Structures are given as C-alpha cells and as structure tokens.
User: What shape does this take?
Amino acid sequence: MTDPLVTFAKGGTDQHTVHASEIEIPDLWHLAMRLDGQDREMVLRCWHIAHDLARHITGAPDLLAACRAALEYVTEQNERLDGPMSMPTPLEEQLDAAIAAAEGR
Assistant: This one.
C-alpha cells in the first residue's frame, strides 16, 4: 500500500504536507450526538466525507495496519489503566494472533 503525500491549505499561510497515514480524522460522532436535526446531519456528513476521502487517498484499507494500530491503542489503554506490567487482555491476544497469522509467524 502506498502512503502518498497530501498538502493542506496549499498556497496559504498554514500550508503543510504530511503522509496520508499521518492524517488524523477527529471522531465527530460524539459531537454530532449532542446536536439536533440538520446540525447533527451536517456534522455526521462531514465525518463520513473525511473517512471516504482518506480511503480514496490511501487506496484500499490495509487490514494488517489496522490490526497493528488497534493492538497499539488497546495496549496503551491497558497500560494506562493497569500499569506498564499489566497482563495482555484477551483482545490484545486475539489481535496479536491475527497479526502473527497475517505475517506468517
């Protein structure tokens, strides 16, 4: 999978270029749930468009990369809650097994 460069605010004072994989899309779902009617629909629409554009820029989603990112996130949260020497959760073990299988380990 390629990781193309994306330029934001091209020609503007805030112009910057990042790899597509570095683009973080804020989770607007929770914000949208606090709104009503058309405002809610507009925020959700923007959220969906952002995800669609990210998928379009990077191509097909990379399942292995998604599993790695999920494992990293779950591990960080587990360590934050239980400390750095915490035992792996069943979810961490399942993600690690899926990664190992995809890598042929």
